[in-house]
Design brief:
It is built from eight helices and eleven strands. It is α/β, with parallel strands linked by helices and 235 residues long. α1 links the parallel β1 and β2. α6 packs antiparallel against α7. It starts with 5 loop residues before the first strand and ends with a strand. The relative contact order is 0.16.
Length: 235
């Protein structure tokens, strides 16, 4: 695990549902915590941004009649719930962790600042940044890219339930083919839904590589960081 010194791990809120179909599956949550602690124990610095789709998604709320700004704010709160759950799971297995929020929500979490986040990372804590960017109309993918660039991370790891980037949605198209590597430009040109356009453009502009991989298989996080050829490398 010597290739990267500091990583930004983006976790899918929807993956936290596990087999339940809604909310937080404690089995999946503890699997995530175990994988993260293993990486942190190796000396690697880990910052995390987690989505809120297992609880509420602003865009879907807007489609059902919610005001978009309020819907996105509800989504931000969902990410805070997930972040607190993950921090609790990490603490229960002896991993130091700091929850920071993009909105001022003391005492639920410390208000995010780059300086305090780096201080915590350098001290060996995992840092979970909740609340997205703190602004409506921006996804947690964009928040991940922003925090990854801001904190000087070497790579952004996008943990999903799919094992990489495909020519089409592999859950819908059995003929879809997986990419081992793909450039940002090709992702944009093909309209592939790796992340939203803002997040992809931000990573491209700041040369932050992305690895998309299946986080739901225990042990995959360590394998990706060890250089095993799983997932898709976006550069």
């Amino acid at each position: 695990m010597a290739k990267f010194q500091r990583i930004l791990l983006k976790l899918s809120g929807e993956s936290l549902m596990g087999a339940q179909g809604y909310g937080i599956d404690p089995v999946r949550l503890n699997q995530y915590a175990t994988q993260i602690k293993e990486v942190a124990d190796s000396g690697m610095q880990v910052a995390i941004v987690i989505g809120g789709g297992n609880i509420f998604r602003g865009v879907q709320g807007a489609a059902k009649g919610f005001d978009r700004v309020k819907g996105d704010q509800m989504g931000m709160l969902a990410t805070v719930i997930n972040s607190l759950a993950l921090s609790s799971a990490l603490e229960s297995i002896g991993q130091g962790v700091k929850v920071m929020t993009a909105l001022n929500m003391y005492p639920i979490g410390q208000y995010y600042s780059k300086h305090l986040a780096l201080e915590a990372l350098n001290g060996g804590d995992v840092v979970i940044v909740a609340g997205g960017t703190g602004n409506p109309f921006f996804t947690t993918d964009t928040a991940s890219a922003l925090r990854g660039v801001e904190l000087g991370c070497d790579v952004m790891l996008k943990g999903t339930r799919v094992d990489g980037v495909y020519t089409a949605d592999p859950e819908k198209d059995p003929t879809a083919k997986k990419f081992d590597k793909i450039t940002y430009d090709e992702v944009l040109a093909r309209g592939l839904k790796v992340m939203d356009l803002t997040a992809t453009a931000l990573c491209k502009e700041n040369e932050l590589p992305i690895i998309v991989f299946d986080m739901d298989t225990p042990g995959n996080l360590a394998k990706v960081l060890a250089g095993d050829p799983i997932g898709t490398y976006v550069y």
